[in-house]
């Protein structure tokens, strides 16, 4: 495996996560391909294809009032040729608004593509393992969270 490529993809994913927490929405948009296949069905009940601008707008609208920290670990990267990679990582997403919190423990799967020599995120799938706290602080969360998660065994 090409360590420079692996490092570039790792940095892309960590920059993506940090941009949520720092609320650097313009920088987040630069991490994304022009179209992003988004699967947030286990958190928000939605699967959709968005432009990079639409993706950032939705996140900004839902998350701007929150303090957040996105922690990624256990990163796996599989190169699928010179211009595509499949990535998976564990995530802990901490969210706080005043004294209320809503945290998500999840697995992320990303597809990254190299366009004009730059690695970008073209697909995001978040699989929630469990949530804790008050869902009301996150306006982007679907009512389906009031129901138990399906058994994954």
Helix content: 25-40%
Rg measurement, Å: 15 Å
Query: Structural class of the secondary structure composition?
Result: alpha+beta
**What are the secondary-structure elements, in order, as H or E?**
HHEHEHEEEE
What is the top-level CATH class?
Alpha Beta
Shape: globular
Mean pLDDT: 91
Largest sheet: 6 strands, mixed
Query: What is the count of distinct domains?
Result: 1
Describe the structure in your own words.
The chain has a single domain, classed as Nuclear Transport Factor 2, Chain: A. The longest helix has 20 residues, at 3-22. It has four helices and six strands; from the N terminus they run ααβαβαββββ. The chain has 153 residues and is an alpha+beta fold. It is globular, with a radius of gyration of 15 Å. Helices cover 27% and strands 48% of the residues. The protein has a six-stranded mixed β-sheet. Strand 5 (100-115) and strand 6 form a beta hairpin. The chain has helices spanning 3-22, 25-29, 41-44, 52-63; strands at 32-40, 46-51, 67-79, 84-97, 100-115, 118-133.
